[in-house]
Amino acid sequence: MNRIRILDESVSNAIAAGEVVENPTSMIKELIENSLDAGSKEIKLEVWNGGLDICISDSGCGMSKEDLLLSIERHATSKIITKDDLFNIRTYGFRGEALSSIASVSKMILSSRTEDSPNGTQMNVLGGKVTNLKDIQKNVGTQIEIKDLFYNTPARKKFLRKDTTEYLNIKDIFLREALANPNVKFILNIEGKESIRTSGNGIENAILEIFGKNYLKNFSKFSLGYLGNANLFKANKDSIFVFINGRSVKSKIVEEAVIAAYHTKLMKGKYPSALIFLDIDPAEIDVNVHPSKKIVKFANQSEIYDLVKGEIEKFFSDDENFISPHIEVEDEEVETFRKKRRKIRIF
């Protein structure tokens, strides 16, 4: 009797979905990045039920009826064509797995319209299968409604955290995307209440709108972003935000460089706050390390480390008084958010 067999399509899709859609936050990250790749200047996200039900709408280029049907197929993408394109990635998505993975474990309604079409198209999808397709009146752009995420994989739901924790995770990824794309307007509503709103009027406005005026006043601009003074020293490294080619990432090398540059200025058990923006030749980095695309590898890590550390040290040498606190941080909303977060990763 043969023991090896080809998996059924529904099983293989569920496995793929498990890699891409670990939880509501990872799903939302993928959908936001799809909207950004579509050239959206405004992205609105509404979430309910701990993120198991969401609606995301954007002002992007939209999809034709034909592309809408293709969008839920695995490895269907407009971002890359050959394997060489993997080493020249400027888009957020490129695998063509996000929508197909989400569709396979949810009840989905996709509505979209392109500028050259008089009508939009609405497509209902259940467990990865199209159940209805019709023309609708719609503005240019795309709206995706997700209902009952993981409805057909109940075991996955057992590993989700309580709603308040999921909402904190969603807020975390949303603010990171807003900081990475400060010229895009972002709106987040949680259970009908507005949680985050940015104007799309640049990075300093985004910092102000997300963290509050006192945070902005305690940040100083330098060649690679923004550095926080002693008022913004924290108990962990989560206040070090790293953005590479407009993508929010985790980078141990960059974090270590920031901490090393601050080393003599830090009190024991404290870490700096910083926003580091790097623009690097896509051929010199690999974002295809993990399905989440949150981890990157550098072709020359030592160069990146030396660059970041050197630029921060240069800034300190030009402004010896910078690190001293000069404005008290009194943003109660941000401080309350942190206390609730406790050991959960957040800024």
TrEMBL record:
Keywords: DNA damage, DNA repair. Pfam families: DNA_mis_repair, HATPase_c_3. GO terms for molecular function: ATP binding; ATP hydrolysis activity; ATP-dependent DNA damage sensor activity; mismatched DNA binding. Signal peptide: none annotated. The keyword DNA damage applies. One of its GO terms (biological process) is mismatch repair. This is DNA mismatch repair protein MutL. The lineage of its organism: Bacteria, Fusobacteriati, Fusobacteriota, Fusobacteriia, Fusobacteriales.
